[in-house]
Specification:
By secondary structure, this protein is an alpha+beta fold. It is built from eleven helices and nine strands. The relative contact order is 0.10.
Amino acid sequence: MNINDVEKVYQEGKNRIEDVEDENELNNLRAELVGKKSSLNSLFSKIKELTIEEKKVFGEKINKARDALNSLIAEKQEKIRQKKLAKKIESEKIDVTLPSRTVTSGAKNPFKLIVDDFVDYFMSLGYEVVEGSDVETDHYNFELLNIPKDHPSRDMQDTFFIDKNRLLRSHTSAAQAHVMERAKGKGPIKVICPGKTYRRDEDVTHSHQFGQIECLVIDENATMGQLEETLTLMLRHFFGENRKVRFRPSFFPFTEPSVEVDMSCFSCEGKGCSMCKHTGWIELLGAGMVNPNVLRLNGFDDEKYKGFAFGIGIDRFAMLKYGIDDIKRIYTNDIDFLKQFSKE
């Protein structure tokens, strides 16, 4: 055995490394050339046949050959990876001169448009926005609003009860009851309460789930005139400055006196058409002065404080404002339907 044997093994290994084009093949060659069972490593077993001086020279030569082969393998591995990466980049190349894909923006649901407009309008007047829970107790949904268990007005609402005491709220007035309770008999209060409500009622203009926004004002000087002015300005904000507003006596257990609020038809300008059922007027909402019983039930001195309240149907406002023919369209997530409101 001599140094030429080491050189021969090295040159053979170098040539084989140069010919490899696959990373897995290169890994196999690594084990064959510099692994424990490699030809180069087997030369160490023959060192014992040499003199002390020859052993040192021969050992250094084998180590240098192994290091050189490891370097060549590392370089080859990097070349293979770079070649593979370049091939992948070429296959995935994007032509930046092509026109871009059209990215369409979404549109707000008309339900949300009404809520946002209403909230912005009343916040500008100093009102606070309060949202309640969809699940309420009988106490807050009915009793604190002057609707005891034997009250006939409960028959006006087909309510979804969860058990004897809990229910899906039938109006957002329940949120007002919580506001009054937290106030502990001290005014003033100016709040609007938007949210979902639930009743067993379903046709093209009604749904078992619908939206309400209710308003409550309690102050020492609240009057019916303030209520009428508030509603007149609000309806003209939503439906146009030329709208006429009228108030008709009505009944609600939580207000006294109570009124139904009508608006002149914007389709026929009051002349009579199918939209207003040929009356010239569209019924929109209920309102009234807060019933003294409600004030007392919620800890207010009805001799000192007065209040007014009203509530709108979000869905009804959306149907009227945007000409929607079926309330279910608001809840179906139809993209073509929603596109109509992209510029609102």
